[in-house]
Amino acid sequence: MADQLLRATAADGGIRLVGVITTRLTDEARRQHSLSYVSTAALGRTMAGGLLLASSMKRSDARINIRVKGDGAMGGIMVDAGVDGTVRGYVDNPDIELPPNAQGKLDVGGAVGCNGYLYVVRDVGYGYPYSSTVELVSGEIGDDLTHYLVSSEQTPSALVLGVFVDATGVTAAGGLLVQVLPKAARDEALVSQLESRLATLAGFTPLLQAGKSLPQIFEDLVGDMGLRILPETQLVQFQCGCSFDRVMGALKILGEDELNDMIEKEGGAEATCHFCSTVYQAGRSELEQLIEELRLERAEASS
User: Fold this and answer.
1) Mean pLDDT calculated for residue range 98-105
2) Is 90 exceeded by the pLDDT of residue 124?
3) Does one domain contain both 165 and 249?
């Protein structure tokens, strides 16, 4: 099943649902960063969460950044997701591995740590980005993002995230976001019924492993509540916007003295993108070209 995101409403627009399948992109991130099992689960959950949160943004260039910083051995997680369906991310310590938790599942909470903060920055595509910070609830990602939605955006929400990874790679990953909007929040019976159904979910990946599609998951959950599935199925993918030109631009900012030092000591420069682990190399000639550009710019500015 292709990686995809699907939106729906129920209760005459009072309930908003978004589902996302991220199996392939999570496995690509696992391979790109050589992630351990628990790091794959942590990054995969956060990337799915980022796509779900970004799905409500309006402009095509809007993006959301999520930084998870706990006191666990993983160090931290960084994810950048866009309303265009692209997502990228990394963890500080990708090699960390822990024994399963008491429930026999990957111990994401233990690796991330439950003491720390979740930072969310919304770049709506114009003006200044909006930033929010909340304390971590469990380090399990889903609980923490739900806490952010309720406390920072004052929207009753449920977020179910999951990644199943074994020796063959990632075989199921994605998530489900359910939000109760103000027009439905006053219907206590409806909210209670929805909460009861969400409580029975054993997770998101078991649904995918059972062969359920996103429309079927929506139907099972709120099919009798006036479900309306929006027609557009959006493809999502792991994609990084880094490039050699951007690396050269960053090197240029270092200035002539630093570039000359790189040439003398290393004969060039090497840079690795944190988000996708792509390695870029600039040789002596490229650095000399940057120095020449800096000299020309300085001469033009002084003339």
Assistant:
1) 87
2) no
3) no
Q: Are residues 204 and 283 in the same domain?
A: no
pLDDT at 32: 94
Question: Could you read off the pLDDT of 160-216 as tens digits, one per residue?
Answer: 999 999 999 999 999 999 999 887 877 888 888 898 989 888 789 999 999 999 999
Tally of CB atoms within 10 A around 242 = 17
Tally of domains in the chain = 2
Tokens of 55: 């799905």
pLDDT value at residue 301:
80
pTM reported for the whole predicted model: 0.91
Q: Clarify whether residues 141 and 267 are in a common domain.
A: no
Confidence at 281, pLDDT banded by 50, 70, 90 = very high
Predicted confidence (pLDDT) per residue in 215-225, tens digit: 999 999 999 99
Contact 147, 132 (CB under 8 A): no
User: DSSP string spanning the chain?
Assistant: ---EEEEEEETTTTEEEEEEE-HHHHHHHHHHHT--HHHHHHHHHHHHHHHHHHTT--STT-EEEEEEEESSTT--EEEEEETTSEEEEEES-TT------TTSS--HHHHH-SSEEEEEEEE-SSSSPEEEEEE-SSSSSHHHHHHHHHHHS---EEEEEEEEEETTEEEEEEEEEEEE-HHHHT-HHHHHHHHHHHHT---SHHHHHTT--HHHHHHHHHTTS--EEEEEEEE-EE-----HHHHHHHHHHT-HHHHHHHHHHHSEEEEE-TTT--EEEEEHHHHHHHHHHHHHHHHHHH-
- Which structural domain range is residue 206 located in? 4-238
Q: Is 169 in the same domain as 75? A: yes
Does residue 173 sit in the same domain as residue 50?
yes
- When computed from its CA atoms, the radius of gyration of the chain, rounded to whole angstroms, is 22
